[in-house]
Amino acid sequence: MASRKKVLLKVIILGDSGVGKTSLMNQYVNKKFSNQYKATIGADFLTKEVMVDDRLVTMQIWDTAGQERFQSLGVAFYRGADCCVLVYDVNNSKSFETLDSWRDEFLIQASPRDPENFPFVVLGNKIDMEESKRVVSQKRAMTWCQSKGNIPYFETSAKEAINVENAFQTIAKNALQQEADPDFSYNEFPEAIKIDNDNSKYDACAC
Amino acid sequence: MSNSSHFDPPRGVFTLPTPCELTNPFWDVIKTSKHFNLQRTKASNINSIYRGVIGTIQNVFDTKQPPFRIVFRAEPTSTSLQIAVSQTEKGINDAWKWIEDSLFLGLTKLDDPGEKENYVVTKINSLVTRQDKGTDEVSEDESVRAASRAFRQTFDIAPTERLVNFYSCAYRSIIQGWMYISENYLCFYAFWLGHETKILIELKDIQDLLKERSKRGIVADSIKVITKGSQETYDTLMQLTSQSMQRLLKNAAIEPAPGKFLFDSNFEPNSDKEKSVPKCNSVMPRSPMVPPLKKGLEEQKRDKEFQMYFNLPTTEHLMEECSCEFSTLEMKEFLNGKLQLSEGYLTFVADNAKSCSFILPLYTVRRVERLNSKTHIFALSISNWHQMKLTLQINGSKIACDKFCNKLRDNLKEQVRHMKHLRSFLSTCISEALLVDPKKEISVGGLGLVFGFPGDSKKLRDKYKTKLWIEYLQTHGRNLTLIKNPYFYKLVRVGLPNKLRGEIWELCSGAMFLRFVNDGMYEKLQKDYAGKVSLSTEEIEKDLNRSLPEYTAYQTKEGINTLRRVLTAYSWKDPELGYCQAMNIVTSAILIYMSEEQAFWILSVLCDRMLPGYYSTSMYGAILDQLIFEHYVQNKMPVLYEHFQNVDVQLSVAYLPWFLSLYINSMPLLFAFRVLDCFFLEGPRVLFQIGLGKKALNTFKYDELLTITDDGQFIHVLKKYFGALDQPAHPNNKNDKTRETTKFNELMMVAFKEFSSITTESVTELRRTHQLKVVHNIESYTKRGQIRNLKDTSKFSKNDISIIYDKYYNAQFYGKQKSVRNDSRMDLNTFYRFLGSISGWAKLDDDNLTKENGSPRDNQGRRLVGYEFINKLFIHFDRSQSDGLTLQDVVLGLGEIVFGDLLSRMELFFNLHDSDKDGYLFKEEILQMSESFLFIFRNLPDDGHLGSVSNFIKNAFEYTESMGETDDVENLLTEKEEHNTRMSLPSFRMIILADGYLEEFFDSGFATTFQFIEPTEERSKGLGREIFNALMTDGMKLAGKFGKRLNNARPKSFGSPDRSSSSNSISNRYSMNSPAQSTTSSMNSNNMTEIESQKSLLKAQGNDSPISFGSEEEDGLMQEVDRLLSEFSIDETGHDNSSALSIDIQATGMTLGFLLSITKHNSGIRLFGNNSSVTACNTASLIDDNDEFERDLKNELRLAIDEYK
């Protein structure tokens, strides 16, 4: 197995416009919060090296545009994803209701081998806002997650850095499991080995 | 109710009176009166051999003539006029009756033959123009009229469909026939020796159009001629498909427009929008006679090119054009060029486009004088608002010059009214203020004036640049009157000075003209929509702080408000588009240099012209340009392209965002503005050039890109490069000058030098051709989304839903075209069409519905009673009572019927007819219900239903009478009239259940009338199936005839038992209503007779028939068949469409004798429909001269016969 090799994990963050996808990614990777981010057009990504179960892995985290019409652009980079993070804003119930369609569309576009068991993680963001503004209860979110095959659920705040590290640890772990899944053995992807080879070069400039 | 006392003239029978031969060998006289003759073509009842031959000859010479006609003649010596034609005897008899009824009396009162003729001609003319307003029936061109009629009757196409052009051509290089191109369809029709070939393709289904030389000449050394005709077809087709695609794309945005006002669905966006977005098919008939559509399309295309070239508003049309020599006082010489005139503008472009051009709005012209020129007949001197004198020496004949000048004078007069705005408008142009006093404070302009412009103005040499510009503007005119010369382009390339930047952008992009013409619109939008919200305004709100947060203005309320106002105003102006992320970034950037109103209009130019579809709900424009970008990469950098293909890196991942935000997000801001300078001047090609330049740069090694193996690395490398644009490109170079060159300078150089071959024209052309591909991708996405968003799928399977979706939008596609309603929901007329596409009994000739006072008729012209049933269904489906159906409404409504049971369906029927919802049906309502029954059953072959329906009426009345007996006697006496015909739901049930026929109808029959068949089979208005079935039958016969050999050669050809069985499987009692099915059966019977004729033809071969092959030739024939089959099989293996295959076989068998005559001339157009492919070979050159063709045909025939002997 590829256990001793460095692994590249591809993580896709999806969710409505303005739920805090970019902020979460930046909080996790750069440990910073800013309210000066621009709206994400198309897609962008950051990488971070983390230790998961004693293994050094590189996470390539893809941040996406939230406006619905951007979905029709055919999101080619979904393919080969190891984990999908669905984000909603706990103070905005519509952003929660659309999770279903984000999930469906992801499964169609990424067409993973085993859609039933593909790892998703749900994040309810912006819990730092005052409680009175909150419209999606923890219970409601958990129920939904359970109904979709026990998706792990976290309540986060990118602004206050609440639960972000924790959530991404789980994301990395689940992604790695997906990667190590016998169904996805490297033998079937000769080019996947190339990725590893090139990674060293690539990482050097990423720092 | 109906005005049966007056005898209505039958529809679609009368033609504009056309001179014709009364005595013609092809016609038999059936009925005759003093002035009228009713005739029938000889072909229909003579010897079957001649029938085949005559049919063929008629088809080759002319378009197909309907078998019946009525001819008028004032007196035996005067010319005969054809006034009516019909496919059926009944149709022509109706016409005859009407003539007897309405014209005979009038005619007897007139004596003079001239008066008689006048009388009839006027009568018929007014009848035709009244009935056929806006159709080809009233076309000026007789041949178009005839062809259009033939086309519509052959293909059962609505009378309002307008023919664009028709060509003689061969299909699959074999069958000689006619190709018709209309607004929505491409059709082929051939009639060869008794066999018909019909092909119908919807333009919207065409995915690709390629022009190629026909490779499949049957004669090896066939002469291939690319005729002008075929080129023209290609162009016209491109344009038409393009329009179909545009409509399709518009339609794809099916959700309520996001920018639409949220709380009032009937709110009309604003009337100005209609003006700025003219309808595609704006060929409105002004006089009763309309020019052929093709002419209109050509003009439309020319106008479009003209508007694109000069960035003029879409309201401008090219009116006059001439060559001329141009000069000003400052210019040393006269320049040759082209002068063009539209309603509001006079434009000039020199032969070398960059050397000189101007766009002069006529409202800026102060004076036009005629000069005495020694060298030219005509010379004009034009003084404009800015005191410039332009001298124009017009070349050409005196007549042409006079015409041009007259038009110019008229248009100038028309435009004078705009002049009064000029002064106030110019006060908003910075150039005016700068020229008066460069140091003066400027009040109107971008945020930069208050918050400072980005960058170090010293380093940018802003003062120096401004000085150069002032010099230029002083001598070459400014804002509205500017003349561009090569120096202008240079000045733009080096970067515009801060203060002038906005105005030059506005000027180059043409937004300035829009702003001038639509004076006050921006403010009006602000006022009209103050405080209103929409989905778009909500989205805008989210993004205001996420646009250009690093610029100080956007950290203040003032800046944010400015941005909000512009974006929301635009979302109101174009609610279909609303707001798209990335617009905020572009707008926030340009607002630094432009006033709100300027930014608003440049946004409109961006969305409508420069980046069409980029920001639309499907973003098709962005996808389209990505395809084009990849196309360029593939052509210009094949190595790199191949590498990316190998490692599966998607270029679009990186380039989409950059194109969408015009590089503003991805380069340091200052450089992005330099790109914008060029972009507004030179159009969208700049985006491509910069994109390509970036990859091709030497410093930025190819090698590095070639090592990339995934999307992430790709973006990373490009980003790194972007970040370093301000660094020197050659830091170690000894030469000072070279060292100063930044990477950005280098990028610009490479972009514009190496990729200068990318022109606006090539981008436009590529956009047009690739459009076809994008549309079908987007459609599938939108479809998925729509289906997923359905809250309730009402037990329908995924497949059923998918079909309902297709039919729903198909109906919308054709329905929308004619209505101007800006509503995504389905209206009643479209609902007719939709229901007709899934259910046979609901099929109406929908175009009759749209005509005034029209109630639908069946194809014999009988008024249809009971069609109101569909209206009732519509109202029932329309749950929200919004006078429109969403997809959800339709799904639920259909689900209720299909998945209901006996009781629920009876209840539905009852409620539908209980118009006052009081729980009882009264006399009128019961009668309506029986009419509904008759309507639904009207196409049934047997008469069983008649008895049941009359029983129903009888029982309904009987039962209610018996109910009356139990009532209070007094009550009965006083209110008998109303009460004795009252029926409640339970009694309705009882009556139905008492009748086996009706019981079965409610139990299963009604539900099974709804057929959810794959649209591919249904695509050609039922023709696909019709053709297929006909071919199946004929193919089988042929197979029998030619025996095993044929089967061995192509066992697959006659396979596909699934298809045929599926068409049989639905032939239960009710689905006999389905239109495809019924036409099929009639088709089949036609075919039977045709097959008979073929048989006799074959029998006759041994005799002295003129075209006998002799029986011993059969072997020769067989060899040819084998050869052809093997030839076709190479091409067809990929196709699973058996109808396409069958057509080959057919062709081969039927027309072998004529092969040689046709295939000598071919040049091809190849079309790929969704499921069928047609090769049409143009032989227009052949038939230019009919006599010649006849001679050729005879020769070839003789040759063919000789050869087989």
UniProtKB/TrEMBL annotation, chain A:
Keywords for this entry? GTP-binding, Lipoprotein, Nucleotide-binding, Prenylation
Species: Funneliformis mosseae
Biological processes, Gene Ontology terms: regulation of vacuole fusion, non-autophagic
User: Which GO cellular component does the record give, naming just one?
Assistant: late endosome
| Top-level taxon of origin | Eukaryota
User: What protein is this chain from?
Assistant: 10184_t:CDS:1
Which protein family is it in? Belongs to the small GTPase superfamily. Rab family.
Q: Which SUPFAM superfamilies match?
A: P-loop containing nucleoside triphosphate hydrolases (SSF52540)
Give coiled-coil spans as residue ranges.
Answer: none
Q: Does the keyword Mitochondrion apply?
A: no
Offer an example of a GO molecular function term for this protein: GTPase activity
TrEMBL record, chain B:
Q: Which residues form the Rab-GAP TBC domain?
A: 495-683
Q: Where is the signal peptide?
A: none
Where is the sequence biased in composition, kind Low complexity? 1053-1087
Can you name this protein? 7077_t:CDS:1
**Sequence ranges of Polar residues compositional bias:** 1092-1108
Recorded hits in SUPFAM superfamilies, A to Z, give:
EF-hand, Ypt/Rab-GAP domain of gyp1p
SMART domains attached to this UniProt entry: GRAM, TBC
> Mind telling me which PANTHER family this protein's record contains?
RAB GTPASE-ACTIVATING PROTEIN 1-LIKE, TBC1 DOMAIN FAMILY MEMBER 2B
Q: Which Gene3D superfamilies match?
A: EF-hand, Pleckstrin-homology domain (PH domain)/Phosphotyrosine-binding domain (PTB), putative rabgap domain of human tbc1 domain family member 14 like domains, Ypt/Rab-GAP domain of gyp1p, domain 3
Q: Where is this region: Disordered?
A: 1047-1087, 1092-1111
All copies of the EF-hand domain together span: 901-936
Which keywords does this chain's UniProt record carry? Answer: GTPase activation
